[in-house]
Please model this.
Amino acid sequence: MTRAITFDDVLLVPSYNHYASRRVVDISSQDHMGKLSLDLPVMTANMDTITEDKMANFIGSKGGIGVLHRFMDIDQNVAMFKRCKTKTFVSIGCNSQELERAKALAEAGAGYFCIDVAHAHAKYVGQTLKDLRDLLGKDACIMAGNVATYAGADYLASCGADVIKVGIGGGSVCTTRIKTGFGVPNLTAIAECARVGRSVVADGGIKAAGDIVKALAFGADFVMIGSMLSGTRPTPGAVLTRDLEDGSPYRYKTYRGMASREVAEDYHGGVAEWKTAEGVATEVPYRETEEEIIADIIGGLRSGLTYGGAATIRELQRKLNYVEVSPAGRLESLPHKLMQHS
Ligand SMILES: NC(=O)C1=CN([C@@H]2O[C@H](COP(=O)(O)OP(=O)(O)OC[C@H]3O[C@@H](n4cnc5c(N)ncnc54)[C@H](OP(=O)(O)O)[C@@H]3O)[C@@H](O)[C@H]2O)C=CC1
Ligand SMILES: Nc1nc2c(ncn2[C@@H]2O[C@H](COP(=O)(O)O)[C@@H](O)[C@H]2O)c(=O)[nH]1
Model:
């Protein structure tokens, strides 16, 4: 049986650092096909509680890129795309109307497309990729996902994907592994898919800047984050308030999986009888900390590269050296100053 690992299973091992300061390392990333270059290798998730135009403009201003969700009609989608002031991905699904969405968005100037389905190692995704390439031409950047195996990534590459989105069932509001028994722990999935030689986006389960460094070191060129930015000001959705037991107000927003019952009710009148929800909806505290979250990611990436003795993300990948950690090692990695000793 193959052993598979994810973020908390490993730590990266430090190596000799040539660089005088964390300021000199380069945290930018370019995809293997030469179509996408980001100063910050971070994408925001195409979820209706994470990325609309406001988040796309925020993350774009930081050097990353937003991926608009697709759960709206085509006119709304075009209007939203036009409100984006920086390079932004748009998403499409796989049914026949989705090519109409792609056509309208391309006419509005979109050049970065994401084919977004739960299980992309599938015939209908391959066909959509080919149709989309025919529609958009060779210069458009097409990302497709999600997959979690070498065979899945290879299939998408062979159908014309430039960038491959990797991660099945690892997201923070995801229940796919519980509901279906399928998934691959994310670091193993990233390493496997990166062997195909196309750029990989590590998607799902990233909780902190250190997880981003691990994902990049294991072969991702970019990461996609949802929960790390959930509840912040640039996310869509209202700020809600309720009283806590002590009477103090608690301000929160909703963060929800795009395969949750709540999403199905809002957009499709409920979960179809042949399906089950594969995501959950949750309350997250309202936060005004998006600037700090991104600064923390940038600082973590800069430090991370120097711990790895690397000036670039590609060098970090070449020098990958890691250990699997014991339960005690994992505990030691967390703040434990106040832990009681018996
Ligand atoms: N990264 C992850 O682990 C996951 C992500 N998601 C997210 O949830 C959203 C909804 O996803 P999705 O349900 O794919 O979108 P859609 O509802 O648009 O479904 C995509 C198409 O794929 C078909 N399909 C066949 N088998 C499957 C399968 N096992 N899972 C999903 N679709 C299948 C669907 O047909 P039919 O509906 O008739 O079956 C449909 O035509 C997306 O944003 C997706 O990224 C969802 C689950 C897992
Ligand atoms: N299995 C499911 N995965 C989902 C769903 N909605 C979104 N997602 C995936 O999660 C990531 C975000 O993960 P996070 O850990 O950063 O919060 C997102 O990009 C999708 O790939 C869902 O309903 N089910």
About this structure: Residues 45, 47, 146, 167, 169, 171-174, 176, 203-206, 224-227, 257-260, 278-279 surround LQESDW3C (ligand 2) (CB under 6 Å). The chain has a mean pLDDT of 96. The first strand starts at residue 10 and ends at 12. Residues 290-307 form the longest helix (18 residues).
